[in-house]
């Protein structure tokens, strides 16, 4: 868990559902938001957030999206699965600065296949600072690729 600069706030449709979704059979897209406060240690000599921090925030968003769906990443691993990153991308539009309160928006827009893609937006007071995505492969504990596990797919149907 991160310091007090981290706050998980799901973006609900009505405040009662488990995720923000379109009303369709797939349960997609799923959108989840967390907030992070930029610490001094997150910045570089120029006073800007170091580019690598965004990937840490993407990971936090991914982990909290799963938790909001009802499955912690720890429980996912205990069930025999992992989601290693196969690809990661970020586009930096505007700098984040020390003490900014940022919203990390994580979106699962497509039904997982052997790969899972998540899209991210980093915002400050509604202003888009960065976008990105990560692609993951479902694997078993031996590192062999597997189909998306039923326990994960079922969460999308709730």
Describe this structure in words.
The chain has about 160 residues and is of the alpha+beta class. It has a single domain (about 5-155), classed as Roll (Thiol Ester Dehydrase, Chain A), CATH 3.10.129. It has 3 helices and 8 strands. The protein has a 6-stranded antiparallel β-sheet with strand order 1-2-5-6-7-4, with helices on one face. The protein is elongated, with a radius of gyration of 16 Å. Residues about 1-20 and about 20-25 have low confidence and may be disordered.
Quick summary:
The chain is α+β, with helices and mostly antiparallel strands. The protein has a single domain, classed as Thiol Ester Dehydrase, Chain A (Roll).
Strand content: 25-35%
Low-confidence stretches: 1-19, 21-25
* End-to-end gap: 27 Å
- Helix content percent band: 10-25%
Q: What's the name of the CATH homologous superfamily?
A: Hotdog Thioesterase
Oligomer: single chain
SSE sequence, one letter per element? EEHHEEEEEEH
Mean pLDDT: 87
What CATH architecture would you give?
A: Roll
| Sheet of most strands | 6 strands, antiparallel
What would the CATH topology be? Thiol Ester Dehydrase, Chain A
Strand order of the largest sheet: 1-2-5-6-7-4
| Tally of contiguous helical segments | 3
Key terms for this structure?
six-stranded antiparallel beta sheet; Thiol Ester Dehydrase, Chain A; disordered N terminus; 8 strands; two-stranded antiparallel sheet; alpha+beta; 34% strand; 158 residues
Q: Could you outline the blueprint of secondary structure elements for this entry?
A:
Elements: E1 6-9, E2 30-37, H1 51-69, H2 73-78, E3 81-82, E4 85-92, E5 101-108, E6 115-124, E7 127-137, E8 139-140, H3 150-157
């Amino acid at each position: 868990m991160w310091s007090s600069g981290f706050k998980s706030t799901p973006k609900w449709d009505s405040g009662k559902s488990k995720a923000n979704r379109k009303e369709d059979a797939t349960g997609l897209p799923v959108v989840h938001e967390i907030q992070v406060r930029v610490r001094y240690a997150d910045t570089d000599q120029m006073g800007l957030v170091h580019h690598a921090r965004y990937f840490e925030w993407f990971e936090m968003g991914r982990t909290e999206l799963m938790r909001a769906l009802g499955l912690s990443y720890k429980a996912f691993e205990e069930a025999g699965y992992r989601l290693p990153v196969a690809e990661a991308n970020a586009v930096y539009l505007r700098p984040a600065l020390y003490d900014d309160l940022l919203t990390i928006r994580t979106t699962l827009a497509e039904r997982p296949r052997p790969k899972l893609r998540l899209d991210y937006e980093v915002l400050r007071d509604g202003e888009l600072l960065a976008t990105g995505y990560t692609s993951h492969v479902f694997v078993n504990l031996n590192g062999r690729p597997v189909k998306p596990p039923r326990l994960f797919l079922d969460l999308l149907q709730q």
